[in-house]
TrEMBL record, chain A:
Name of the featured protein: Formate dehydrogenase alpha subunit
Cellular component GO terms, alphabetical: membrane
Alphabetized NCBIfam families for the sequence: Fdh-alpha
UniProt xrefs under InterPro entries: Asp_de-COase-like_dom_sf, CT_Formate-Dh_H, Formate_Dh-H_N, Formate_DH_asu, MoPterin_dinucl-bd_dom, Mopterin_OxRdtase, Mopterin_OxRdtase_4Fe-4S_dom, Mopterin_OxRdtase_prok_CS
Regions that span the bilayer: none
Keywords: 4Fe-4S, Iron, Iron-sulfur, Metal-binding, Oxidoreductase
UniProt-listed SMART domains: Molybdop_Fe4S4
UniProtKB/TrEMBL annotation, chain B:
Keywords tagged on the record: Iron, Iron-sulfur, Metal-binding
UniProt domain 4Fe-4S ferredoxin-type: residue ranges: 208-240, 288-319
Organism annotation: Malonomonas rubra DSM 5091
GO molecular function: iron-sulfur cluster binding; metal ion binding
InterPro entries (alphabetical): 4Fe4S_Fe-S-bd, 4Fe4S_Fe_S_CS
PANTHER family on file: ANAEROBIC SULFITE REDUCTASE SUBUNIT A (PTHR40447:SF1)
Protein name as annotated: 4Fe-4S dicluster domain-containing protein
Amino acid sequence: MTATLTTCPYCGTGCNFYLLSDDDGRLTGVEPAGQHPTTRGQLCVKGWNAHAFVDHPDRLAVPQIRRDGELQSADWQQALDLVHDQLQAIAEKHGPDSLMFLSSAKVSNEENYLLQKLARAGYGTNNIDHCARLCHSSTVTGLVETLGSGAMTNSLSCFDETELVFVIGSNTTEQHPLIGSRILQAKQRGAKLLVADSRKIRLAKHADLHLRQQNGSDVALLSGMMRQILRDGLEDRDFIAQRCENFAAFAEKLESYTPEYVAGITGLEPEQVIAAARLYAEADRAMIVYAMGITQHSHGVDNVRAISNLALLTGNLGKPGSGVNPLRGQNNVQGACDMGALPDVYSGYQNVADPEARKKFSTAWGCELPETKGLMSTHAIEAAATGEVRGMLILGENPMLSDANQGMVKKALERLDFLAVIDIFPTETAAFADVVLPASCYAEKDGSFTSTERRVQLGRKAAEPPGLARTDWQIICELLQRCGLKSDYQNPAEIMAEIAALTPSYGGISHDRLQGHGLQWPCPDKTHPGTPILHIDRCTRGKARFSPVDYRAPHELPDRDFPFLLNTGRSYFHWHTGSMTRRSHLLDREERFAFVEINPDDASQLAIFARQQVRISSLRGSITCRALVSEKVPAGQVFIPFHFTEGAANALTNNALDPESGIPEFKVCAVRIEPC
Amino acid sequence: MLKSLKREDLLRLLETLAEQYDLQVPLKLPDGTRQLGRYGSGELSLCGPLLQRKPTSLLFPQAELLLSINPDGSVEQPHPAEKPLALFGLERSDLAAIAFLDRFFLCEPADDIYQGKRENSLLIGLTGFAGENSAYLPPAGENCDLELIATADGWLGCAYSAAGKTLLAPFPDSEAKERTEIDQRAAEPKTDSLLKAASRLLREDKVPDAFWQEIADRCILCTGCNLVCPTCSCFCVQDRIRDGKTERSRVWDSCQLDAFMREASGHNPLGTEALRTRRRIHHKLVADVERWGEIGCIACGRCDRTCPTGIGMFAVVEEMINQFG
C-alpha cells in the first residue's frame, strides 16, 4: 500500500488526505492527514470517497474530434492542431474578442495561470473567466471596494477563539463540513451562534437565534441590524474613527430601516431583528460566515457591502476570532481568481487596464497584451447566444448544468462556430464540443491549490491518468507552443516560479516551501511566513470604506401563475454537476434521484406525497423530479440542488445578473409545481 | 521462553521477515503520523502514537476488486499475492480487532477473499515502552504469532505460534523467564470499564430516544466513525462495466448513511439520524455482546479522533454515563 499526501478536490476548506494505492496502482481508499491544521484526522463524506471516481470507466481517455456529427477518436497532434487552427482562424476573422476561455476552479494554480496567459498572450483577448463568476464574484467586487481584498479575512483556526459566529447564507455543515464542524465545536465550548437562513439547516438546530428571512431580503435585514446597533450605542467608535471612512453617508442610509420596515420585507418579527443586532454586537470577537446565500443575487454585491459594513461597524476586523469570512466553494476557486483567470486582472489582481501592470506582463511574456477588460463568463454565454462570441475553449467546467437558464446556455453552445472542451468525463457541455481533450484528474498530477483561508497547498500525483489523458498544464503548454510562446516548463514547480516572480502576494511561494502545511498569502518574499489574518493594522486599501446600500427586491418574485419561490444550491452528498460524485458509488447510492424539497403544508395543499414525481416550471423551462417533503424549507419556497442532469434546476433559474459582478440570481425565481 | 533482542537483532529479524513475507511495518508519513506500509518503502517508525490507518485495512481494504466477469461470462479472480502478509508493529487493540474480524469473516461460510489474505499471514505485536514518547503499551497477549516488548535497553521476544518460535529461535534467551515479570501494569484499562458501564445502561434500556436525537443533531454524516473502526465489517458491492467486462468490488459501507438500510420502495427501517446514531453505539455495546459475548469496541479511540463534532464512541459513552449512569 502506497500513501500519497494530497489536497481534497471538493470544497474550499483545503483538507489534506492520503490517497492509498495498491501494487497495481489502483486507488484503494483515503486516510485523513492526522497532523494537518485544517484536517486534524477528519474528513467529510465526500473526502472519504474522493478516490472513488478516479478510475471510473467513463473517464475520457483519448482525444476526440467531431466528424460527421459524432465525436470520434483522434490523436493528440490532430486534435491540438485543430483547436489552435480554429481558435486562431476565428480570432483573425472576427477579432480576438470573439473568443472566450473558461478556466476552472477545479484545476491547479499553475494551470489557471497558464490558461489566462494563453488567452491573453496567445490569442490576444482578456476574455477569460471561470466559475467564480457564479459563486463569489460578488464578494470580490464588494470586498475589494470596502477592504481592498476579496479574500476571507481570517483563518479557520479563528473559530477556536471567537465568541460568536454569525452564519448567513451558508449551509456550512453540508457545504464546508469541516468548517461547519468547527462552528459546532465553537458552540459546544460556549460561543454563541446566530444563523440567518430561510432553510432549517443543521446549524439552525444549534443556534441561539435562527432568522428565516425571505430569500433576497438580506440587505434589509443587515441594515435593520446596523440601525439598531447604532441606536443601542453598540458600535465600535474607536475603530470607526481610526480605521474607516465614509461613515456619515452610510449611517444616514440606515435611517429608514426601522425594525418594523425590515420585518415587512424579511418576513421576520421586528423583535427578531433587534435581538439579532444585540446578539452580534455584544460579542467582543464575532465572525461573519457567508456563502452563496449572500452572493447569488441580482444585488449580490450590495449584500456583500452590507456584510462588510456590519463587521466594520462593530470593529470585527483585523483581529483573531473576527472578520468577514466568505467561504469559497471549490477547492481552487480562490486560486483561480488569484491566478488571474478573470477578465479584468492578471495574477495577484493586477489590473489589465493599468499600463504599468500591462507593461510588466507584456515584458515578462514577450508580447503585446490587450488593454480592454474582457467578458465575464455570464456575459460571454449571452454573447455566444447572439453570435458575438464565436469560439470557446472550456477547461473543466460544465455550464450546461451549472449556469442559469439552461435553455439559453444550450442555444449559446449550439451557435458557437467552434467549441473545445478539456475535461475528465464526458459532460453535458462536452456533448456540444467539436474537440474534446482528455485530462488528468486531481489524483493524477502535481500542482498547487489555494483554499478558502488563502492557504496555498500541494496536490500530488498518486495514480496514472487513464489511456492517453494528459495533465491540463501539459495540454495548455501544447497550445502555448503553437502560439509561439514559452512552453518548455518541465513541471508545475517551474510554472510557480514564474507566478511568484510576477505576483506580489505569491512572491515568496515555491513548491519547496509548500511542503508541510502550505503557506497563507500574502507571502511576498522567500522568508515571509504567510499571513493568517488580513487587515491587522490597516486594510489592504488603507482605510476601510463604509459602502451605503439600499434594499432592492429580487428580479423575479412569485406571482399568481408561478406562486413558489425557487431556491437552488447543492446537497451534501453531491458535487456541482455530479460528474464526480454521481460516479462515486456510496455518494450516488445516497442520493440517486433529482429531487425538490417542499414544505409539508404546500405538499398537502397540492396533494403531493413523498417521493412522488412532480413537474416544476418557470418562465424559462420545465423539469420533473421527486418530491422530498420536508420542513427544512419554509412554506412558499422549494429547493432544488443543481446536480442532476435529468432534473436540472438550472433549466428553471433566472439569468438576471448583478450589474457589477455579473452573478446570476440562483437563489430566487418564481416557479409552479404540479403532480405528474 | 522469552528472547532478548538488541536493535540490530530486530532489524535482522525484519530482513528475514521481508524475505519470506510481504512485510508491512510502521512508516513515518510526511505529516508526522504513522501507518503500515511495505518494508523498505519509507522511513521505519517502530515506536510512536497509534497507527493512523487501521491495520485491518490490509486484510479488508476500503475498496477491493473481488472478481471480473468477461463478456463471454467467464469469471476471473484477482491474481493471488506472491507472498503472505506479515503485519509488524501491532498493539493490543489492533490485534484484538483482527481477532474480531477473523471470527466474523472466517466463520462458516468463510469469506474467501479475507481468508486468502489471512491464511499463512503473520501478526507481530509491538508493546512495552513503544508508545508515543516511550509510553507503555499493555501486552498484546496471544492474538499474535509473536510479540516484541520494548524495554529500557532493548526488546524482549515472545512467540505464541510455531512460525513465531522459528523466527525467534536464533536469538538468545532473556534473563526474564516469564512475561509476567514485565507485565506489572497490565491491569484492565479504564476504557474497558466505561464501555461495560455504558453497555449495561443500554441493555437496561436507561437511555431515552431524546438522547440519541441530541447526539444525531451534532452528526454531520461524515461516516468516519465507521470507516476508521477496526471492527466494523460492513461493505457494499459495486459493479462497474469497463470495455464489456464487469468489475465487481466491495467497498466499506457505513450504517450512518440513509441508503445503508433503505429499501427499494424508499422506506427505511432506520430512517432517521437518531435511529442510525443509536445503532452505531448499540451495535458495539449490545448486539455484539449478544452475538459474540463481548463488546465490539476495542477501545482504540480512532472514532473519537476522526469525528469532526466530538461524538465518537467514548464521547458518547461518557455523556451517557454522566446523564443516566
